[in-house]
Amino acid sequence: MKYTAVILTIFGGDFFLKNYMEKHLNLGEEREICKGRILLRRYHNPGTALNILKKCQGTFKAACGIMLLILGIFWFILVRKKENFGTILGLSLLLGGGASNYYDRIFRGYVVDYFSFHTPWNRLNRIIFNISDLCIFLGGMILIWKCRNR
Fold first, then answer.
1. How many domains, the chain?
2. What is the DSSP letter of 111?
């Protein structure tokens, strides 16, 4: 049950934030928060990370749906066994973030990204994220760590 709560919290929280940004921040508008360390910027991403594959949206949507289904099956099997805390947590983060971005792709036609970090590196400053992206990254890192430490 707690892993389901992780998935639903990520999906619901990011859904709320994306809708809030869509209503309260114009495209191209920027607002600094956290003493200028975080920049709120609304962006519509029709592709994947860094707008890659924006010309292959149909194929990418199908691939995302298949990947979510496969991850969901693994998650369901592991949850029933009640083993592998780290693996289930990593899958839960991936599923929550992936489902949120997949929902955007299906119902909006793009993923809403809304913040970036202010860093000394200009390339990183240009990347715009959402909470789901961070959960996908963290879930992937947990799974890689778990696989390497078997």
1. 1
2. E
